[in-house]
Amino acid sequence: MSDWVEKERFGLPEYLLRTCPSSLREGRRLKTKFRLGCHDLRSSSSRTQLVRNAQCPCCKSRESETIQHALLECSAFTKERDTFLERFYELHPIARGLSPEGLCDVLMSDDLPHETENTMYRYLILFRGSGWAS
Fold first, then answer.
1. Are 93 and 87 in contact (CB under 8 A)?
2. pTM above 0.90, yes or no
C-alpha cells in the first residue's frame, strides 16, 4: 500500500508531500485553494460571475479582495496579521524588506520552511474562524 501511495504522490508540490498535523490541515487546504484560484475571496468569485463586486467586504478601502489584500493589507485583520508577521519575521528577518507582492509570493510558495508553514496555516485558520474565507 505504501508503495502505491508514494507513486501516486509524484509531481505534487513540496508542501503537500510533507506530513501536516490534523489540527492544521484546514490551513493547508486554504493555501491550496488560494494557489489553485478556487477560493471564496471575491477576486475569484467575480471571475466566475458569482459576485459582481470584487471589493473587499471587510474594510472600507474599496480594494479588490485579492489574496494579497486579504493576507497582508486588509485593515479588518490588522491584529491577526501583526501577530502572524511578528512570528514570521522572527523566523525570517530578511523577509522584512519584501514588498507585499514578494511576501505573498513567499507565503504561497512550495518551499516554505516547515515551522513557517505551520505558522502560516494557523494564520489562515484564524481568518477562516473570522468568516473571511471558506
1. no
2. no
